[in-house]
Amino acid sequence: MKTLLITGGAGFIGSNFIRYLLDNSDYSVINYDLLTYSGNLDNLSNIQGDKRYTFVNGDICDRNKLNNIFHSNKIDGIINFAAESHVDRSILDSQPFVHSNINGVVTLMDVARQFGIARFLQISTDEVYGSAAEDQTFTEDSNLIPNSPYSASKAAADLMVRSYVQTHHFPGIITRSSNNFGPYQYPEKFIPLIINNALEGKKIPIYGDGSNIRDWIFVEDNCRGIFEVFEKGKIGDIYNIAANNERTNLEIVHLILKLMNKSTDLIEFVKDRPAHDKRYSINAEKVKSEIGWFVERNFEESLEFTIHWYMENKKWLESITKKTKFTDYYKTQYGLA
Ligand code: NAD
Ligand code: TDX
Question: Which of 8, 42, 129, 268 matches a 20 to 30 Å C-alpha distance to 262?
Answer without folding.
Answer: 42
